[in-house]
Amino acid sequence: MKKLTIDKQNSIIEQAIKENKKLSAILSESDLTYDDLMYSNDSIDVSSATFAPIDLMDNLPISSDAIPAVSFFSGAGGLDIGFKSAGFNNIIAIEHTELFCNTLRHNNPKQIVLGPPYCTGDVSNREEISDLLLKHGVNEYFNGVFHGGPPCQSFSIAANQRFNKDGEHFKRTGFEDEEKGMLIFDYIWYIKKFKPLAFLIENVAGILECDPDGKISKALQELKNIGYTIPEPQVLDAAYYGVPQHRRRWIVLGIRGNSTIEYPSPDNSVTPCGYVFTRPLANVKNHITRQHNAESIMRYCKLKIGERDKLGRVDRLNPYEPSKTVIAGGVKGGGRSHLHPFIPRTISVRECARLQTFPDSYEFTGTYARQFTQVGNAVPPMLAYKIALQIKKAIQSLK
After folding, report:
1. How far apart are CA 126 and CA 196, in angstroms?
2. Which residues are registered as beta bridge partners of 200?
3. What's the rounded Cα separation, in Å, for the pair 69 and 199?
């Protein structure tokens, strides 16, 4: 039973504004929390609404094929989780941001993580990283898989509109980005050097728009020239692959030899996000919600499903549709979450992680803002899992 009526809620909000008090304090005085708040004139009766369950990474049986894999630009481990569930043994993760390395080590104590504070983890330092790979048993004609998504901010429309506002017409910097723009070619260099059995390259959907000279096509042709079969790259929307979120990713798959490697088939319909927000949140990590001020809550309460609060630039999610893309923010944090579909507040890191299909057992380290960065930068594990199954199928056909 609801603890609040709309009239009582409005009275509390107005009191906080009038007395210049923190809304959180007034709610606490009445034994209430932000989760007791509701949208005004809401057409959704959450108590009676039903949302079909979706497949969860938490419930997937982990295969034990133990095909070795090395992850590049590992981030918080989205690709690693998907590949592990599909039967790969992630023996090495390479990541240059120490906080992300902390998350990887925290969740996978037995995995080798090449990154700070023990080495740079910088893939552009080819000699350092290749020597470390050799030291840990990754040799030429590696009998396993390389997978990785080179940092994509320089190719992302959203990122450049938010973080490069001084640039001409908010243009994406692409390969002109000295720090991140060429990392995809560093990654391809490792593929050519170690010749893994198969590989995955992941990036934002708009990467080819920043490549008018065809540098990427030429690099992929070089891989074909040394014996890889590479089907035409595809842009996959994660919402058609069991992820309750629209997230379009550019995917390249390759396998050594003349075998066939195929992309996973999309579902007939997208995955709505409503079920994510009906699951209980007791005893989960990374579920801290912001204590919004009364003025913000007053604006949020008036939003209909799917509408945007223009001042805060946040959207109320529609539970009958996939979530909008979870936004990472910059390297110093600043991830911006969406508004909960049923409660007028922004969603927590854990709720964002569920939209990304991270299992609840996976814990993100660091500050609140940097946790958002890790979640938002990741490849959804469920999408990674379905791609990894296709890679495994192709590898097994070689035997």
Report:
1. 16
2. 147, 253
3. 9
Helix/strand number for the chain, H first, E second: 12, 10
Determine, yes or no, domain membership for 36. yes
- Token pair, residue 57, equals 């990474």
Statement to judge: residues 164 and 95 lie in one domain? yes
The angle at the Cα of 341, spanning 335 to 343, to the nearest 5 degrees, equals 90
Please give the average per-residue pLDDT across 54-66, as a whole number: 88
Amino acid at 188: I
For residue range 27-55, what is the model confidence (pLDDT) as tens digits?
Answer: 999 999 999 999 997 767 666 667 889 99
- Please write the tens of the pLDDT for every residue from 370-385: 999 999 999 999 999 9
3-state secondary structure of 291: coil
CATH number of the domain encompassing residue 249: 3.40.50.150
Q: By residue range, what is the domain housing residue 123? A: 62-269+380-396
Mean pLDDT over residues 170-192, rounded?
71
Burial code (b: 16+ CB inside 10 Å, e: under 16) for 271-290 equals bbbbbbbeeeeeebebbebe
CATH number for the domain that contains residue 17 = 3.90.120
- Spatial CA neighbour of 389 closest among 80, 85, 10: 85
Same domain, 263 and 276: no
Confidence grade of residue 168 (pLDDT, cut at 50, 70, 90) = very low
Statement to judge: residues 185 and 311 lie in one domain: no
8 Å CB contact between 299 and 39? no
User: 72 with 94: CB under 8 angstroms?
Assistant: yes
- Of 90, 93, 107, residue with least CA distance to 388: 90
Q: Cα–Cα distances in Å, from 108 out to 81, 183, 354?
A: 10, 25, 19
- What's the total number of domains in the chain? 2
For residue 325, how many other CB atoms are within 10 A of its CB? 17
Name the band, by pLDDT with cuts 50, 70 and 90, for residue 399.
low
Residue 278 in any domain: the answer is yes
Q: Are 378 and 147 in contact (CB under 8 A)?
A: no
141-166 pLDDT, tens digit per residue, is 999 999 999 985 544 444 444 444 44
User: What does the pLDDT average to over 42-70?
Assistant: 84
Joined together, the tokens standing for residue 388 give 């990894």
